[in-house]
Amino acid sequence: MTTLKTLFGTEAVSTKPRSIRFKIIKAVWDTLVVKDQITDYIKPNTRISSSAETYNLFRFIAYETKEHFLCLHLDSKNKITCVDLVSTGSLNASIVHPREVFKSALLSSAAAMIFLHNHPSGDPTPSREDIEITTRLREAGELLGIRILDHIIICEESYVSFADRGLIP
After folding, report:
1. CA distance 154 to 67
2. Whole-angstrom Cα distance, residue 110 to residue 86?
3. What total number of domains does the chain contain?
4. I need a labelling partner for 112 at 20 to 30 A (CA). Which of 11, 85, 127, 143 fits?
5. How does residue 95 score in pLDDT terms, banded at 50, 70 and 90?
6. Within a domain: 10
């Protein structure tokens, strides 16, 4: 049986105070202010209402030569509150772990999320791994109370929406 004595041993009472150190984790984020003339890109309070709209907003990742996995954090009215680049992978793979996906979602108080990633090959067909990670992330989101609205695979000429295909209930 473990007791304080077995952990720390018996010790004579010392007259000098002992200290214990703890790590304190604080939520830290930064607001990015863009001062370019891009007022038509995403207007303030824009609501995401379809996979086609999301594809058009983030189509630019199709031109990347490596896989990029992004998460859109949405408020309760489906307005984008945060865009998180979770992972940059290789030509045909990107490592995505639920811990990394939901770490920033919790800090941003996301009510819902949309996942995006590109396929540099130009074929938006979901791989077995894409389907498996989406299922895992959806289950994690349910536990945390964060709705997963969609996972969209983006290519230059087309996209695949898991929600449109019925892969996300």
Report:
1. 10
2. 15
3. 1
4. 127
5. confident
6. no
